[in-house]
Specification:
Elements (H helix, E strand, L loop, with lengths): L10 E6 L9 H8 L7 H7 L1 H4 L7 H18 L6 E5 L6 H10 L4 E6 L6 H20 L6 E4 L7 H17 L2 H4 L3 E7 L3 H5 L11 H22 L5 E6 L14 H10 L5 E4 L8 H4 L1 H13 L3 E3 L7 H18 L42
Parallel strand pairs: 1-2, 1-3, 3-4, 5-6, 5-7, 7-8
Helix pairs in contact: 1-2, 4-14, 5-6, 7-10, 7-14, 11-13
Length: about 375
């Protein structure tokens, strides 16, 4: 365990996606998300209906506020003198504004934790591109941007895996006793284009789903094994996908969770637990695509189904992030801290190498080996 010194870092940045906080925010938020794609307003209003079902409010900002408060409380309780800031890619508080605040506060070395646990363009590289854009904007204003690093992927850290495992056990207990032991586990994550999946992670891992699929499978395998150890029951499980949003002619990762539920029902599965292993908190794609659409599909089929919890602001997850912050700080000081990871893949890289999760159109990205702001 690394010691309790954050040096050389003088701030932690919680970096997330953002979401609308009222009906009037929905379409402008979606315009931010889809900027440059030429999607007509009518289509955005159609997509926005998912948000309007929940009063036009995405839960993600409230969940980030809870995580922000939990990190600050945990750091203070452990004597860790590291202020925590929060910025979003697509809604207030905007990333550029938060970095500007960091500069005003005299912060020079910033460590970033993104609310995405896995390697992929949308889950890592795009955040790094947004960081580069924001740092360039500060530079254009005549400010000296801070050096920004990014925390390694935490999909296989005990602070992520253990709360996910407990969530599955709690969900199993909510099933009727006569179907509980036969319940299948459906580990769900966001579908992405297969081309993006195949090029996710370092170049050495490209192909056949790349790091995106491999990391999800590793986490799912570890959680399934822990559930088996706790219950004494070997349960069938599969990694499935949700929330596809691309053009129909472009291949995306499959099977879709609703299709998978139909397959399970047809095969005679007595019940299923949907495990949102790809998500850190219960944001809109969990509340709508799983809690609304997928549970409705299971109801139509007569298939008993429950959804397990995400890690949210679980104290073990928060403590895991603290552990990772201290690990990275010690590494930057030239020390050799223990790098905790479960499963078969081991700890991820600290610095994204050249060619890691490339975009189709190359853009500068911060917090990597090819960062223009090193």
């Amino acid at each position: 365990m690394p010691d309790e010194r954050p040096h050389p870092y003088d701030a932690l940045l919680l970096l997330s996606f953002g979401g609308p906080e009222g009906p009037d925010d929905v379409v402008p938020f979606l315009e931010n998300v889809t900027r440059g794609r030429g999607i007509p307003r009518e289509r955005l209003e159609e997509v926005g209906q998912h948000y309007f079902l929940f009063g036009g409010v995405s839960p993600i900002n409230a969940q980030n506020r809870e995580l922000l408060a939990a990190l600050r409380e945990d750091f203070a309780a452990h004597g860790l003198d590291l202020p925590v800031y929060w910025g979003n890619r697509n809604w207030a508080p905007y990333l550029t504004d938060t970095l500007r605040e960091l500069v005003r506060d005299g912060r020079r070395r910033v460590l970033t934790v993104a609310t995405s646990a896995y390697a992929s363009y949308s889950g890592c590289r795009q955040y790094r591109e947004n960081l580069a854009d924001a740092l360039a904007a500060l530079q254009a204003e005549g400010l000296t941007p801070p050096r920004v690093d990014k925390l390694r992927h935490y999909f296989n850290h005990p602070g992520f895996v253990e709360p996910m495992t407990e969530g599955v056990l709690t969900a199993l207990a909510a099933l009727p006793a006569d179907v509980r032991d036969g319940a299948h586990l459906a580990f769900t994550t966001h579908s992405i284009p297969t081309a993006s999946a195949d090029t996710s992670g370092p170049v050495a891992t490209h192909g056949d789903g790349g790091s995106y699929v491999a990391q999800h499978l590793d986490a799912a395998r570890r959680i399934a094994a822990a559930v088996r150890a706790a219950t004494g029951v070997e349960r069938p499980w599969e990694l499935v996908y949700q929330s596809r949003s691309g053009a129909p002619h472009i291949p995306w990762l499959e099977p879709d969770v609703c299709d998978h539920l139909e397959t399970l029902h047809g095969a005679g599965a007595p019940a299923v637990v949907m495990v949102p292993v790809g998500f850190v908190s219960d944001h809109m794609e969990v509340l709508y695509d799983l809690d609304t659409e997928a549970l409705a599909k299971a109801g139509e089929l007569g298939l008993p189904a429950v959804r397990s919890a995400t890690v949210g602001a679980d104290p073990r997850f928060v403590a895991g992030l603290r552990d990772l912050v201290l690990e990275r700080a010690a590494t930057e000081r030239g020390e050799r801290p223990e790098r905790c990871a479960l499963g078969a893949l081991g700890p991820s890289h600290d610095v994204c190498p050249v060619g890691c999760c490339p975009a189709r159109t190359p853009r500068p990205a911060a917090a990597g080996a090819d960062s223009p702001f090193a």
